[in-house]
Structures are given as C-alpha cells and as structure tokens.
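Meet my pick.
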Amino acid sequence: MLTLQTTDGSTWFKPGELIEGRASWFLDEEAEAIEVRLFWYTSGKGTQDVGIVHTLRIDRPETSGHRDFSFPVPEGPYSFSGKLITLAWAMELVVLPTGETERFDLVIGPRPVEVMLS
C-alpha cells in the first residue's frame, strides 16, 4: 500500500511556494528504492511529454515506513487546459523495480484552477 499526501491536504500551489508532504508505504517485499517525484505531463493531440522537476530517492527502504519531503514549486509551466492539449502537474510515489505507483494530482499557477485556453 502506498500513500502520498501534502501536509495540509492542499492541491494548489503558486510558483515559489514549497510543497510539503509525506510519503508512506507498506510493501509485500523488499524494494531496491522508492522515489517521490514532482512532475508535469501533457495529454491531448500529439506526443505526450513528461518533465520530472524534483526527485527524492530512498534507497533500500524498510518494507514499511514513511518519509517527509519538500519540493520548491518552479516558476512554470502553469497547469493549463486547451482544445488540443492539457498540461497537468502531479506527484508520484514509485516503488523500484516493480513500478508500483501512487499519484497525487496538483494545480500549479497563480489561481486554484488550471488556466483555460480558448
């Protein structure tokens, strides 16, 4: 079981703020590593792009545990949605090498909703 959350439950962050949270895990077997990642990704028409902005790697973790983390929010890109493409932000907790994942969706920008492009 994997759990990923922000300290205060927030899902919206402005550029320059700090995302603070906790990653928790209970694994059936030992893992090589666990990573907490802050990333953006695109979806829609065309090729999907992904940009990993920050990574916290925990090598040889115990089969159960937790780790607090903090990531500075970059200046951009902002979360946005348009007719052809959407750019979204998320954090994920990934177990290596199995690839088991838990994701926590975020909005990055000046307002608590993604920018809507027309």
DSSP finds no helices and ten strands in the chain. The chain has a mean pLDDT of 95.
